[in-house]
């Protein structure tokens, strides 16, 4: 639609685009049901761009980013400020020789942690951890073995390791680091082995996000149903008006 030629006739597709914006506004709570029905009726009655434009003037366009986002941050289990606790770490090293080690759950990452594996594997999971400092170092040495480091979204990771006939990999996330989050520096050596770092949310956070998406689909489905019902009622009312008009004309002809 355009405001440059308000006198131009609007098409059915134009009216449907406006109806879609109204449906989204209803689902997001920007309009109550009364406002939605009133604007929807005006939408289907509109004949020109000039009549359609004011209906959504105070609403964001379809597909436009909202001015304010109410989505929850991935690190909902606690703000970053509360997770940088100072003091000493829960442990400063771990070793696995033809075996494995894990550091995960609610533990405190020291300013420097060393993990060593020889023909074994190690897992360093920081998703629920606290941090002794705003910058921590993980010194990972994997010889014919592997060490997996898992960090929560928003954490900045700096890789400074060396790989010899092995790999030192960081699977970077698309979102930028959170300025309040700690910085994790990964150093060390991978010899015929591998050290990998990836960003993941916790299982609980995945479940929460999945439930939010499911609820959003339900809300949108409900709004779509309400839109369908409102359109049906409006069309029935229009048909009734036309029938009454035809009846009046017939009575006038007599």
TrEMBL record:
Q: Where, by residue number, does the polypeptide cross the bilayer?
A: none
UniProt-listed InterPro entries: DUF1707_SHOCT-like
The segment annotated Disordered runs over 206-254
Alphabetical list of Pfam families matching this protein: DUF1707
Q: Where is the DUF1707 domain?
A: 8-60
- Domain of life, per UniProt, equals Bacteria
* Listed PANTHER family: DUF1707 DOMAIN-CONTAINING PROTEIN, MEMBRANE PROTEIN-RELATED
Q: Write down what this protein is called.
A: DUF1707 domain-containing protein
């Amino acid at each position: 639609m355009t405001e440059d030629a308000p006198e131009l006739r609007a098409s059915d597709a134009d009216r449907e685009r406006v109806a879609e914006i109204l449906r989204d506004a209803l689902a997001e709570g920007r309009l109550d049901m009364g406002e939605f029905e009133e604007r929807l009726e005006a939408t289907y009655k509109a004949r020109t761009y000039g009549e359609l434009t004011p209906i959504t003037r105070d609403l964001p366009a379809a597909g436009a980013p909202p001015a304010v986002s109410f989505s929850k941050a991935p690190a909902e289990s606690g703000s970053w400020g509360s997770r940088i606790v100072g003091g000493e770490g829960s442990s400063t090293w771990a070793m696995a020789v033809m075996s494995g080690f894990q550091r995960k759950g609610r533990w405190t990452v020291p300013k420097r942690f060393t993990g060593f594996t020889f023909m074994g594997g190690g897992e360093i999971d920081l998703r629920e951890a606290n941090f002794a400092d705003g910058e921590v170092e993980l010194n990972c040495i994997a010889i014919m073995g592997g060490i997996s480091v898992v960090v929560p979204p928003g954490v900045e990771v700096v890789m400074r390791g060396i790989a010899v006939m092995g790999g030192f990999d960081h699977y970077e996330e698309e979102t930028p680091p959170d300025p309040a989050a700690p910085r994790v520096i990964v150093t060390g050596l991978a010899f015929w082995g591998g050290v990998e770092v990836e960003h993941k949310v916790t299982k609980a956070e995945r479940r929460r996000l999945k439930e939010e998406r499911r609820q959003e689909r339900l809300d949108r489905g409900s709004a779509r149903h309400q839109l369908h019902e409102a359109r049906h009622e409006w069309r029935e009312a229009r048909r009734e008006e036309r029938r009454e008009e035809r009846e009046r004309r017939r009575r006038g002809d007599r």
